[in-house]
Write a structure and sequence with these properties.
- The chain is an alpha+beta fold and about 375 residues long.
- The chain folds into three domains: about 120 residues; about 90 residues, OB fold (Dihydrolipoamide Acetyltransferase, E2P) (Beta Barrel), CATH 2.40.50; about 100 residues, PH-domain like (Roll), CATH 2.30.29.
- It is about 40% helix and about 25% strand.
- It has nine helices and 13 strands.
- The longest helix is centred in the first third of the chain and has 40 residues.
Length: about 375
Amino acid sequence: MMHPSAKGAAEGATAMAGTASGTPRDWGTRARYGFGVLLLLLSAGMFALVPGKIADKDAYLSAPACPAGARSADCRAAVGASVEEKVEVHDGKTPDYYLVVTSPGPGGERRLHMDGHAPVYDAVRAGDTVTLTSWHGAIRSVRSGNAVQDTRLSPVDDWQIPLGVGLAVLPLGLVMLWSAWGFRRYRARGNRSWPWLLVGAWVTATVLCPVGFFAGAAGGDVPHALLITAVGVLPAAAVGGLFVAWTRRRLRRAADVRDIVPMVPVRRKCVRASVRGDVADGMAGVAGLGYLLVGDGRPAVTPDPSGRYGLVPLAPSLVVQRVRSFRPDDPAGWSSVYKVNGIVIECRNGDERVLVATRRRDASLVLGALVAAPAPV
């Protein structure tokens, strides 16, 4: 009779694994389509903000100076003010800089959030006289002598962040949609090799993402930002190609399993392993409870790294077929757990295929335990 804790652990793993092997991958495809559409909508929304921001910038820069003693929303008014104090706030990763100034008239004391600390903020001291530029009811810049510094309310650079975000998420959205379509077709054709073109495209898009953001956030104008992003495509593609070449080389080395030979465990040991398939009497689909206990009778899967509870012994009819490296059609998540050097031991339990995944350094021990496991009394 199976111990209640073992039965509960196995049933829990079966429930988490799901009943249809294709279901997690189908959900992954839907998620890629959904995130791809969301990213493209976000990119389109950011791009839609840019013309309005540029129009505000042009209107501000082309606005004439207000006549002496007159104020209008369509002109830029110059107001003299005296610096009362400088305030530096360190609430986030980068400090915020404020100038507290007083000016004659109804404005009185103002606390101006400066755009950075140079050149005006660093240069002025309490008691200095500065000139404030007002447009549409807000202070947009501060002048001290020949130095001019924008406040955070200046519309001059407001177009940069929307453009940068749009350029950053556009390649990610495109490659997300393409990979959703491509992975589905790839699996439908029954390929067992890795989709290297899609992998390279993902790396290219990931590299191009920060390039696009900084091009938009630091570019002098829209054509300049677009040019920087376009120039970055080829270097990003080169990085993607190098990554694919490096990964393929590592996988070719990992595919050589000639050094993995059975090593019978001489003592009790719990190793990291995942099992997929019918592994125990009456237990279907035990999906890698996380660890495999070897060297203490029949190998047993367990969620406990110490191997003290939740043990589900493997079926005595389990027969080892072959040893190999990971393939794209292996259970999702194995490659992220065991990395490139993960090893799969293919077994049969009657007519059912059983896969045992483990780390390369533990593969010989697991293989030896499976081959030399004693039959039940």
